[in-house]
Amino acid sequence: MIKRAQDNARRTRVAVAIGVLLVIAAALVTGLALGFGALREIWQEQCRITDPELDVVITNNKDQDEQRRMVQPEIITFHFGLTNGANLATVPFADLREKLLGRIPNVRDLKIERRLPNRVMIEVIERDPVVRVAPLKGKADTGLVADAEGIVFPFYGNVSALPIVREASKPGTQPGKRLTGMSAAALRLLEAATALDLAGFSVQEVDTSHTDYLLATLSDYSRAKIAWERMGEDSRAAHTSLTNQLTCLARAIGARLITQPTLWNATDFGKPVHVYAIDPARAGGQ
After folding, report:
1. Taking 80 as the threshold, does the pLDDT of residue 166 lie above it?
2. Confidence bin at 40 (pLDDT 50/70/90)
3. What is the pTM of this model?
4. Distance separating alpha carbons of residues 208 and 173, to the nearest angstrom
5. What is the DSSP string of 215-281?
6. DSSP 3-state assignment of 6?
C-alpha cells in the first residue's frame, strides 16, 4: 500500500511538472508571437509611401514615343493603390499583376521591383502593333491590332501604314485573344514578307476567307493566291515553304512580263514551285 501510494504521488508530481512545462512553453510561444508581431508592425511601418513622386517609379517601354503609349502611369498607380500612405509590405503585387495582365491586353509584361524599405519600381512593357485586324468587308481602321505573338488588342494611335488581316469569321478575334487558323497564317505571311524585304514586293492586306489559301493584295494592287506546305503550322518546315513561295512570287512579279494589276497564283508548293498569272477576265470575283 505504501509503495502504491508513493507511485501515485510520483505520477502526480510528474504530471504537475509536465503541466507546468506546457504552460511555460505556451507562454513562451505566445510571447514570441506577440514579440514577432510587434517587430513586424515596426518593420512594416517603414514601408509606407511618404512621397509618391519619389517612392513610386513607373516607366514604360514607349517613353521615347509617347504617342504610341496606351497605358498611362495613373492606371498603374490606381490599380496597385500606390498612393501616399500605402504600405508596400501589404500590397499583393503578384496577384494584382496577374489581374492587370488579364484585364489590359495592351500590356505584354509588367516588371515589379521592390527597393526596401518604401520604394517600388514598375516597368510597363506594352505590345507593339504589327498588323491591323479588320472584318472581311468594311473599314480597315477598327481600333484593333495584333502584335507579333498574334495577341489582339485595342490601339488608337496612327497605324495606317500597317498591313491588314481581314478575318472572315464574325465577330472576329476579341481583344486579349490570339489569332488562330487562317488569321494566324496571314500574320506569318505578313511577317515573312517584311523580313525577306524583297525588292518591289510588299503585301497591303490579306483576305482569310478561303480554306486552302490566302488572298493577298500587293502594293501595286495586284492580288495573289498564296498557299504553302503546312500553312496551318508555325513550324520550321512551314516557314521554309512560305519563304520559298514568297521568293518565287516576287521573282515572277519582278520579271515585269505583266505590267497591269493582275491575279497571281502561288498555291503550288511542289518542286519546282509553279507561279503564274491568271487572266483578270477569268478571275471572276476572287
Report:
1. yes
2. low
3. 0.79
4. 13
5. EEEETTS-EEEE--TTTTS-SHHHHHHHHHHHHHHHHHHHT-S--S--EEEEEE-SSS-EEEEEPHH
6. helix
Cell of 95: 496577384
Quick one: angle between helices 73-80 and 93-103, nearest 10?
A: 130
CA distance 214 to 183: 9
- Here the cell at position 88 is 508596400
Determine the Cα–Cα distance for residues 245 and 216; give it in Å rounded to an integer: 13
Three-class DSSP category at 88: helix
Cβ(169)–Cβ(158) under 8 Å? no
As given in the structure block, the three cell numbers for residue 118 are 518604401
Quickly list DSSP for 157-224.
S--TTS-EEEE-SSS-PPTTSBP-HHHHHHHHHHHHHHHHT-TT--EEEEE---SS-EEEEETTS-EE
3-class DSSP state of 133? strand
Report DSSP state, residue 151: B
Kind of pairing between the strands at 56-60 and 119-126: parallel
Torsions phi, psi for 21 (to 5 deg): -65, -40
- For residues 190 and 146, give the distance between their C-alpha atoms in angstroms, rounded to a whole number: 12
